[in-house]
Amino acid sequence: MKYLKYHAIGNDYIVINPQDFPTVLTPEKIEKICHRNFGIGSDGILFGPLKSEKGEFLLRIFNPDGSEAEKSGNGLRIFSRYLWDMQLVQQELFTIETLGGLVKSVVLDNGKTVSVEMGKVSFWSDEIPVTGERREVISENITVDNKTFTFCAATIGNPHCVIPLPEITPELAKQYGSLIEIHKYFPNRTNVQFMKVLDRKNIQLEIWERGAGYTLASGSSSSAAAAVAHRLNLCDSSITVHMPGGIILIEIAQDFSIQMTGSVTKVAEGIISEEIFFRE
To answer: What does 178-223 look like in DSSP terms, one character per residue?
Structure first.
C-alpha cells in the first residue's frame, strides 16, 4: 500500500491514491496510519484522486481521529503538489472537489508553492453552523472552564471559531481549544483560532484543529481568521498569517472570497505494512 508524505509549513499529511489501497479505509485504519508511535504519523490522510462530477479531481480528507473533514487549506495545497508530482497537472489552473465545495488551484515555483482559490467566507450562523437564531456571528461571548472569550464564527466550507486576543500562546490553544471544539454552540464541532493582530497586514495564530488537536499551521484557519480580522476592520485585504510552522499569504476579495498561497514540502514516500492494522 503505497503512500507519499508532505508537509505544508509543519502541517503534515499522508497522500494515498485509492488505486494503491486495495482494502477499505476505515476510521480504525486511519487512526493507526496517522498515529505518531504506532503508524507513520500525520495530521491526516488525503485520499484521492477520485472521480469527480463537479471538477477535475475529487479529494476526501480524513482527520487523525478517523472523522472526515470538509476542507483543508494545507491539505489542498499538498494534494495539488501531489497531482503535480504525479504529472496529472501542469501549471494551469485546475479544480478539486471537496465536501466543503469546489476549489481552484495552481502549482507555482516548480511545485514548491501552491495557490488555492478557497471560496467565500460566510459569517452566517446557519451556514457555519452555530446554534440559535439566524445571524452573522460577530463578537459574541463563549464561556469554557469558567473563562469567557469574545469570538467570531465563520465557514469556508468548514467551521471556525476565531478569538482575537492581545496575547496568545500554544498553552492557551491547548488548554481551551479542545473545550471550544465540542461546545454546544457548534453542532458539527469547530476549528479554533486564537488570533493576535500584529498590524494592518499581519496576524499571528495559535490553532486547535477539529479532529486533530494542536497544530503548527492550517490553511482554512488562516483563511477564516484573516477574514475575521478584515471584517472587524483590524486588517487590510492582503494579510500575512504567522503560525508556529510558517506563514501563509491570504488575499481577501470584496465578497470575502479567499486566495491562499503557501509552500509545500515533500517529506517521504514508502509502503504501508498491513501488519500495523493487526497489532495492538
So the answer is: HHHHT-TT-TT--EEEEEEEEETTEEEEEEEETTTEEES--HHHHH
